Amino acid sequence: MQIEIAYTNVIWHSLNAVDRERRTLDIDQVHDHAIAEDLLDWLDGQGLDLGLITGADRTTVHETFASIANATDYSRKFGVEHEGYHLVIAYCVEAIQQLVAP
Question: Which among 12, 21, 32, 63 has the fewest CB atoms less than 10 Å away?
């Protein structure tokens, strides 16, 4: 196992543990916006300052999140069931993992 995958698994398990503490974003809305390829735009409206991600980078992030959201059951794959911000983090971790995978 590559070390990056091991770290990713630790993060997912940590997310699962923290997820049961409180809710701040609706997880279904996060998932729906990922599929709609506008998650970063929606998060901007939720108070996150993601303005530095622009142009082709923003498009790539949206496409990658949509691909992940369409291909995975977030509860089974990431262990995230309640907290939308944790799903966002899980999508990021999965995207990074895809970048470093051979």
Answer: 21
CA dist 34 and 69 (Å) reads 6
Predicted pLDDT at 35 = 98
pLDDT at 10: 35
Query: What local confidence, expressed as pLDDT, does residue 19 receive?
Result: 60
CA 101 to chain centre: 17
H-helix or E-strand spanning residue 8: helix 3-19
Listing DSSP states for 35-57 in one string gives HTT-HHHHHHHTT---TTS-HHH
For residues 94 and 68, the answer to whether their CB atoms sit within 8 Å is yes
Q: Are 43 and 50 in contact (CB under 8 A)?
A: yes
Q: Is the dihedral of CA 72, 73, 77, 78 positive or negative?
A: positive
Strands (E), the chain: none
